């Protein structure tokens, strides 16, 4: 389709004419042909359409004209008086959005329209608009202002601010949020593009996902072009998780998400609330110093995202395997209730299991350093084991030296799977850390029936050990 060059002017008719029918307004265009030469003193065919919303918007009215260009190539028509093709001109709701005029021209005077142009209708004759009544709303002292082609009540003639894009995904988050702790100095800075320089009234948004938070944007103005909005986040989040804020400003929407961390635990001791894993197994928990531990061995056969961890029962296959797996001691499911499952290191390490978590959500396999925090709090490796072992010889073999369980860790002798053999149940309890040791090993902790220590060992990754989880 060939390009038409037009000079557009919407001409307001005199007030006396608006009492006559039909309503109309003038449209003028300079017509040039394919060779860019003026089309002079010739009858041209023209189709005029009113589009709503955009250049590709809905056609709400269409008419055709046969008009003669003057000696300067100028064609004048009265829109609203042509041969109606669709719609009703007098029923156009000029208050309902932005409108565009599309003209299609046949320089030879027919309907083989070869030239086309689309222009935004930047102003609407007041009498036309008044025929549809004034816009709703408005307060004392306000005036009607043409804002992007839409008559709008404004204060001081300043149109409401608009933008073309609001970019929550690339926002800058400052400060941290912690469950049950009042937010302080927390902001989210959200960039935007296509600002029109107009004013906005700000916004107050209540959080969802995690309740108790409010994001507040003070009233201000958009820049001409790109800029940013600073939302201040206040309140006290009720829980940990993800807080969401649905923003709606300048005619655009997006959602800001902020992570709310678990509240840190104060140094204390005693039992905490029970937790459940991905399969619904329940575990008691215990506070030891600044940490919160599971008070039982892990029993789950799925990662926290629901992915199954394979159960390998063949000893040779277990020895040759280098991916996550678990087994019951002696392949006897009866051992699960008391001792939990035995896992190889490939199942507990996120570097080998596809960044999955074998522990319940908000819990993790402790690092080597976190195990050391525990044993240091209990007096060091040489004496910590006695404070971590279950008392008595019902589950531990005699003599179960120095066992007091003052920490309430309640360590049990679940044995392990090594080199294809199940060994040491009743004698030893062994637990993985998530920290790699040598090429074939990872750091573990061991409790024994014959002493009160908590030894630190670099154990073979293919072995099957117990797992205790630590709260994030």
- Major β-sheet profile: 6 strands, mixed
Averaged pLDDT: 86
Give the overall shape: elongated
Q: Can you list the strand order of the major beta sheet?
A: 1-8-7-3-4-6
Strand segment count: 32
Number of helices: 6
SSE class = mainly beta
Uncertain segments: 1-22
Strand content: 35-45%
- Provide the helix percentage: under 10%
Distance between the termini: 64 Å
Whole-angstrom Rg = 38 Å
Q: Main traits of this protein?
A:
six-stranded mixed β-sheet; mainly beta; five-stranded antiparallel β-sheet; 472 residues; single chain; 6 helices; 41% strand
Describe the 3D structure.
8% of the residues lie in helices and 41% in strands. The chain has helices at 126-130, 315-320, 336-339, 345-348, 368-377, 381-388, and strands at residues 2-3, 25-30, 43-52, 58-68, 74-79, 83-86, 99-106, 115-120, 143-147, 150-154, 165-174, 177-178, 186-196, 199-200, 203-206, 213-217, 220-221, 224-235, 241-249, 252-261, 268-276, 282-289, 291-294, 326-327, 342-343, 363-364, 414-418, 421-425, 428-436, 441-448, 454-460, 470-471. A six-stranded mixed beta sheet has the order 1-8-7-3-4-6, with no helix packed on it. It has a five-stranded antiparallel beta sheet with strand order 11-13-18-16-15, with no helix packed on it. Helix 5 crosses helix 6. 33% of the residues are buried.
């Amino acid at each position: 389709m060939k390009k038409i060059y037009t000079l557009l002017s919407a001409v307001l008719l005199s007030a006396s004419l608006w009492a006559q029918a039909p309503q109309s307004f003038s449209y003028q265009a300079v017509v040039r042909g394919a060779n860019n030469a003026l089309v002079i003193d010739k009858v041209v065919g023209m189709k005029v359409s009113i589009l709503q919303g955009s250049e590709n918007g809905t056609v709400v009215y269409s008419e055709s004209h046969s008009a003669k260009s003057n000696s300067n190539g100028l064609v004048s028509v009265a829109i609203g008086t042509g041969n109606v093709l669709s719609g009703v001109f007098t029923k156009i709701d000029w208050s309902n959005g932005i409108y565009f005029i599309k003209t299609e021209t046949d320089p030879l005077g027919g309907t083989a329209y070869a030239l086309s142009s689309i222009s935004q209708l930047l102003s609407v004759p007041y009498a036309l608009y008044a025929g549809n009544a004034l816009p709703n709303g408005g307060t004392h002292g306000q005036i009607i202002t043409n804002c992007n082609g839409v008559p709008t009540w404004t204060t001081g003639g300043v149109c409401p601010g608009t933008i073309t894009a609001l970019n929550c995904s690339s926002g800058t988050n400052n400060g941290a949020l912690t469950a049950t702790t009042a937010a302080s100095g927390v902001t989210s800075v959200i960039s935007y593009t296509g600002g029109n320089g107009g004013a906005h009234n700000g916004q107050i948004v209540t959080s969802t996902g995690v309740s108790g938070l409010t994001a507040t944007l003070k009233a201000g103005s958009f820049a001409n072009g790109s800029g940013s909005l600073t939302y201040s986040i206040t309140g006290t989040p009720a829980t940990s998780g993800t807080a969401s804020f649905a923003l709606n400003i300048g005619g655009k929407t997006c959602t800001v998400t902020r992570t709310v961390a678990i509240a840190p635990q104060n140094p204390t001791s005693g039992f905490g609330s029970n937790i459940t894993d991905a399969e619904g197994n329940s575990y008691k928990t215990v506070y030891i110093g600044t940490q919160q531990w599971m008070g039982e061995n892990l029993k789950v056969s799925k990662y926290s995202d629901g992915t199954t961890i394979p159960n390998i029962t063949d000893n040779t296959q277990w020895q040759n395997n280098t991916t996550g797996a678990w087994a019951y001691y002696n392949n006897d499911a009866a051992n699960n209730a008391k001792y939990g499952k035995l896992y190889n290191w490939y199942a507990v390490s996120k570097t080998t299991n596809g960044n999955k978590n074998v522990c319940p959500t908000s819990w993790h396999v402790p690092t080597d350093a976190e195990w050391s925090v525990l044993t240091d709090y209990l007096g060091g490796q040489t004496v910590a084991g006695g404070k971590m072992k279950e008392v008595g010889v019902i589950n531990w073999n005699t003599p179960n030296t120095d066992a007091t369980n003052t920490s309430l860790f309640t360590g049990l002798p679940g044995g392990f799977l090594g080199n294809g053999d199940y060994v040491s149940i009743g004698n030893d309890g062994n637990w993985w850390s998530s920290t790699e040791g040598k090429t074939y090993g990872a750091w573990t902790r061991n409790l024994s029936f014959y002493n009160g220590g908590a030894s630190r060992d670099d154990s073979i990754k293919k072995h099957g050990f117990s797992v205790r989880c630590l709260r994030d």
